[in-house]
Write a structure and sequence with these properties.
The chain has 325 residues and is α/β, with parallel strands linked by helices. It has 11 helices and 13 strands. It has a 6-stranded mixed beta sheet with strand order 5-6-7-3-8-9, with helices on both faces. Strands 11-12-10-13 form a 4-stranded antiparallel beta sheet, covered by helices on one side. It has a 3-stranded antiparallel beta sheet with strand order 2-1-4. Bound molecules: adenosine-5'-triphosphate (ATP).
Length: 325
């Protein structure tokens, strides 16, 4: 049996809204509309989709915060909404947009409280804390109140907090949102190491396809509460014929770069944008551009999730929306 198992999982919300002066209309929102998948122990899976697709609702059911209105769900053999407390000992959750840390307390006091709340044996707590402090470089931050931490520091603090009780599965909801490039790289590196060393199962929700590319061998795409794709990221790019962008900073303004395998998109002074298929490697293209042009800098941008998904269906998301109405 997979470690995480969903079978035709559903969640419907009933919302009331005003439909005139005295009348209220009841409307059903199918946030999760019959999703089935299995995740094996030790897998690192991306769970992506446009805003309002149903990602957070799924995660909330996986943690037991929300009760499904249909279907079946098991995490480590446990029914989350029935045995939420027992499950809490085995899972860790990090929400990028919210903190589980105590705002006014120094970081280390939040950890002490977690120690007691989760009844973590002393030796294990020490060991886990030391490891997280070292790998997430938290040493100098332990005495700082959480409200004084930068977003990247707070995120690292939150990830440590979620791991002190040795969870077997970690849910991460937008763990790199708003972080600068260096902080993103640190968080990704840590998660990769955690997965390799501890075998922690990770389910990752993100709007940043680079997170997926660097961390997950498998990605699931959800839209309108349904699973639209389950497979490798490369396969998703192939289905959507998506393109990555090479942003080239030249020493001076030059005519459009013309290299095989890429398409000139636009120029702004000495900066040029070239598009190339997301399924091919950037390395030969970078080598070719660097060999024949005076370069200052280069970067590769992943397509955004909305574009990839829209292309997957053919046509734009708005066109598709209209066809659904
Ligand atoms: N408590 C609730 N009551 C009513 N509707 C809800 C509730 N929570 C979520 N929804 C609706 O369910 C749908 C799915 O929402 P959900 O938050 O799961 O999406 P999401 O994929 O996490 O989006 P985002 O990327 O914006 O966080 C949306 O239409 C949302 O408005």
């Amino acid at each position: 049996m997979p470690f995480i198992e969903l079978e035709s999982l559903e969640k419907t919300f009933t919302v009331r809204r005003k439909a005139g002066l005295f009348r209220r209309e009841r409307r059903e929102v199918r946030a999760v509309d019959g999703i089935s998948f299995g995740v094996e122990r030790g897998e690192m899976v991306g769970y992506i989709g446009p805003n309002g697709a149903g990602k957070s609702t799924t995660i909330k059911m996986l943690t037991g915060i929300l009760t499904p209105t249909g279907g079946r769900l098991r995490v480590a053999g446990i029914d989350p909404s029935r045995e939420r407390t027992r499950l809490a000992q085995r899972i860790g959750v990090v929400f990028g947009q919210r903190t589980t840390l105590w705002w006014d307390l120094p970081l280390k006091d939040s950890y002490r409280l977690m120690h007691r709340m989760y009844r973590i044996p002393d030796a294990r707590y020490r060991e886990n804390l030391d490891r997280c402090v070292e790998l997430l470089e938290l040493g100098e931050l332990l005495d700082v109140p959480v409200r004084q931490l930068s977003l990247g520091q707070r995120m690292r603090g939150d990830i440590a907090a979620a791991l002190l009780h040795d969870p077997e599965v970690l849910y991460l909801d937008e763990p790199t949102i708003g972080l600068d490039v260096v902080s993103k790289a640190r968080v990704r590196e840590f998660l990769r190491a955690l997965n390799t060393a501890q075998g922690t199962t990770v389910l990752l929700t993100t709007h940043d396809l680079t997170d997926i590319e660097q961390l997950c061998s498998r990605v699931m795409v959800i839209d309108h509460g349904r699973l639209m794709y389950d497979g490798e990221l490369a396969g998703l790019h192939a289905v959507g014929e998506s393109e990555r962008l090479l942003v080239v900073d030249l020493e001076r303004e030059l005519p459009p770069i013309d290299v095989p395998g890429a398409r000139f998109v636009r120029a702004e002074g000495p900066r040029q944008w070239l598009a190339f298929p997301a399924t091919s490697s950037a390395a030969p293209l970078v080598a070719e551009v660097a060999a024949n042009h005076p370069l200052l800098d280069l970067s590769v941008r992943e397509p955004d999730i909305e574009t990839v998904i829209a292309k997957m269906y053919g046509g734009t998301r708005d066109e598709r929306r209209e066809s659904l109405m």
